[in-house]
Amino acid sequence: MNAGVKRATRSAIAAATLMLAGCVGYNTYPPQGGALAGTDPNARTMQAVMVAAIQDAVRTQPPPPDSPYAIGLPRGATSETYQRVTSQVGDRARPLTTQTRDLPIYLVGRVWIRGPKAEVDIHRPLDPSSDTVDRTQATTFYLRGGFKDWHVIHRQAWAAGAVPVPPFDVLEPTPAPPPIDTASVNDPEGG
């Protein structure tokens, strides 16, 4: 193969790699003025990155043994996103609601995704038995992934209070459906 064909082949492969990396994601939360990145916390890539970071946070900075814990996602996350993320994080994970505010809370603050690289800030309680978000420590989780599963490659813990607690919403629990009136179902006459 001559040098010109080799060079053209390498250039085509490099261009295809860059284009494919762009398909993985270019997302940022919270939204930043002028940024061209997606900002939807319900996007699948955002969810996958948050799951990997929260799992690592709980593993390396755990709540009390056998204790459930609450997860607070960025503003705008839907109840479906909360359910999907918490079910993937682990059996003890619960969405942050008015009913789970007394549990240790792990809050997702910032999510930054650029192709196969991501960073996620998670605020965790300094005292795992405490439910207050006033005494938290932020940790930045650096991840790799995209076409492969996202995984943490490095983490940076910050001094307490160095990273402000992000604004967050408490998800309102979905009301249970009304009970079925079995008497009318079993009595075809309706009486």
Shape: globular
Number of folding domains?
1
Can you tell me the CATH class? Alpha Beta
Distance between the termini: 88 Å
Mean pLDDT across all amino acids: 81
Instruction: Please give the radius of gyration in angstroms.
Output: 22 Å
- From N to C, what is the helix and strand string? HEHEHEEEEEH
Count of helical segments?
4
How would a textbook summarize the main sheet?
Answer: 7 strands, mixed
Beta-strand fraction estimate: 15-25%
Share in helix: 25-40%
CATH architecture: Roll
What would the CATH topology be? Nuclear Transport Factor 2, Chain: A
Structural class assignment = alpha/beta
Q: Give a count of the beta strands, DSSP E runs of length 2 or more.
A: 7
Topology, element by element:
Elements: H1 3-24, E1 26-29, H2 44-60, E2 69-72, H3 79-89, E3 93-95, E4 105-114, E5 117-125, E6 136-144, E7 151-157, H4 182-186
Parallel strand pairs: 2-3, 2-4
Antiparallel strand pairs: 1-4, 4-5, 5-6, 6-7
Helix pairs in contact: 2-3
